[in-house]
Amino acid sequence: MLSTNIWTIIFIVINLIILFILMKVFLFGRVNKILDKRAEIIRRQFEDADVAQREAEDLRVEYEKSLASAKEESAQIVDEARAKAKDEYDRILDDAGKEAEQMKEKAMSDIEAEREKSLNSLKNEIAGLVVSATAKVVGRESLDVDNSKLYDDFIAEMGEKIDE
């Protein structure tokens, strides 16, 4: 059978206590320090990740505000460009209308001047014919004063008929 010696049990217990104390002093202290350092590093990483996530969220919000502002600004620029284009269109249209009116007035004055010129030419031609016809009827050449009087009377008569 197995015999148990009390001294052996006491010696084993003392060895276990000494081993426990040595392990606690030399091994568990260092292991606990390493574990505490690792826990601290992990805690800092989580804090840094939280800070980075908050900063990223702030940047996202700022970016969205900036994007909305840019959209509003671009819409405003487009509206301003449309307004300027419409103003330019209206100005060009007004200028074209004024130019057309000026061209019309010039054409009317040119027509009136041409009409006057044609009438004067016609009057001179008719005066020559009247003088010639009168000379043939009377059978003689009359004086220039008489020609002028006949001419003026005829023109006055013809002018009244043309104006009517």
Features:
single chain, 164 residues, mainly alpha
Brief digest:
This protein has 164 residues and is mainly alpha-helical. It is built from two helices and no strands.
Structural commentary:
This protein has a domain at 8-120. It has 2 helices and no strands. With 164 residues, it is an all-alpha fold. 0% of the residues are buried.
Strand content: under 5%
Mean pLDDT across all amino acids: 85
The percentage helix is over 70%
Element order, helices and strands?
A: HH
Low-confidence stretches: none
Which structural class is indicated by helix and strand composition?
mainly alpha
Tertiary shape: rod-shaped
Could you give the topology of this structure?
Elements lengths: L5 H133 L5 H20 L1
